[in-house]
Design brief:
121 residues, alpha+beta, three-stranded antiparallel sheet, 6 strands, elongated
């Protein structure tokens, strides 16, 4: 396994081959590493980095939430689909938004199911 690299400086960003972004980082001792990111990965990483930055580097950062439970139901007095994670207040979705969410979840699930299992090297 490669030694840990602790980046302290963003040196450069460039459009790389095709539709990727090359990001070059440097450590405090001058070593550099270049990451090449796809657009989808860049979007995901941007969200994680924004959340991390908003916490001020708190060690209690939980970048990706994985609920232990969820519930789906319908509104009693409104024609909405209710989606609740754990014990939080439910989200009320209009019927078409719930259909769109279901399709997006199926599409992403199928994409992930076709991916090879990621391994750390």
């Amino acid at each position: 396994m490669a030694a840990k690299f602790e980046a302290t400086t963003l040196l450069r960003t460039d459009a790389a081959e095709g539709t990727t972004l090359a990001v070059t980082l440097a450590s405090s001792d001058g070593r550099t590493r270049t990451l090449t990111l796809t657009p989808d990965l860049a979007i995901a990483l941007a969200g994680v980095l924004a959340d991390y930055g908003a916490t001020g580097g708190s060690p209690h950062l939980q970048a990706t939430r994985r609920p232990r439970s969820y519930a789906i139901g319908t509104g009693r007095y409104e024609n909405v689909v209710l989606l609740r994670f754990e014990d939080e207040a439910p989200y009320a979705l209009p019927a078409q938004a719930a259909v769109d969410l279901a399709k997006a979840l199926m599409d992403q699930s199928e994409t992930i199911a076709r991916r090879p299992i990621a391994t750390l090297q």
